[in-house]
């Protein structure tokens, strides 16, 4: 069970691009106009993030980053008094360091909530990702992830979930219209439950990133992640077709399959359609 949540990492690409945005706190007006506008912006952001998932910074080789340190930070806070007293704090940080063929990225999100003097959320999520490019085809990756729930106290809760993995990667196809790279490695996962009992096991990871551009307006991607541990075999496959019909209109159709042989119903499937239209 311990490596089950690492499928979202993409296994060598920095995890969760989009994890670094802190929660935005906005207060609605009595008329509800601001609330509607905020919801519209949420929908637009979600659609654009879904379409951005098709992009792979390492698609054509060593990504071009400015040498040295770069990054961003975000902070969101709200406090309420009166009939109910609440506090919400979200902090996001992304830090990148590029030096020659080595690119390292560190990301962290802290999310805290309090209601009427009681803590309701105390979550920390951090990810480290490093890639060393020997040449345009061969590279090595290392990744580490830790997620904690400071309020977990039951044996069914997860207090700490961590994973560390390393391995090689190879770019089999690298043309202007078609790219395919794959990577595999070994890792160790650590799981601690709310009752402080813990479990450590070895996991084997593999992933594939395929991209093909048909023309200037249409391309497809197929991303596959495999995680094997003593407790389960998990496979995620995300297939997407992207259309840019005009400068103002873009569409992404995706089909996500999630397989877990440790569940009663082993396979989940999700069809997604995202549309960006401006006028």
- Residue-averaged pLDDT: 82
Residue stretches low in confidence (pLDDT < 50, at least 5 long) are: 1-26
Could you say which overall geometry the principal axes of the C-alpha atoms support?
A: globular
Strand order across the biggest sheet?
1-2-3-4-5-6-7-8-9-10-11-12
Strand content: over 45%
Report on the structure:
By secondary structure, this protein is mainly beta. 7% of the residues lie in helices and 60% in strands. It has one helix and twelve strands; from the N terminus they run H-E-E-E-E-E-E-E-E-E-E-E-E. The protein has a twelve-stranded antiparallel sheet with strand order 1-2-3-4-5-6-7-8-9-10-11-12, with helices on one face. Strand 8 and strand 9 form a beta hairpin. The longest helix is centred in the first third of the chain and has 20 residues. The radius of gyration is 21 Å and the shape is globular. The N terminus is likely disordered.
Summarize the topology:
Blueprint: H1 33-52, E1 68-80, E2 86-99, E3 102-115, E4 118-133, E5 138-149, E6 158-174, E7 178-193, E8 198-215, E9 218-228, E10 233-246, E11 249-260, E12 267-277
Question: Which keywords apply here?
Answer:
mainly beta; 60% strand; globular; 279 residues; 12-stranded antiparallel beta sheet
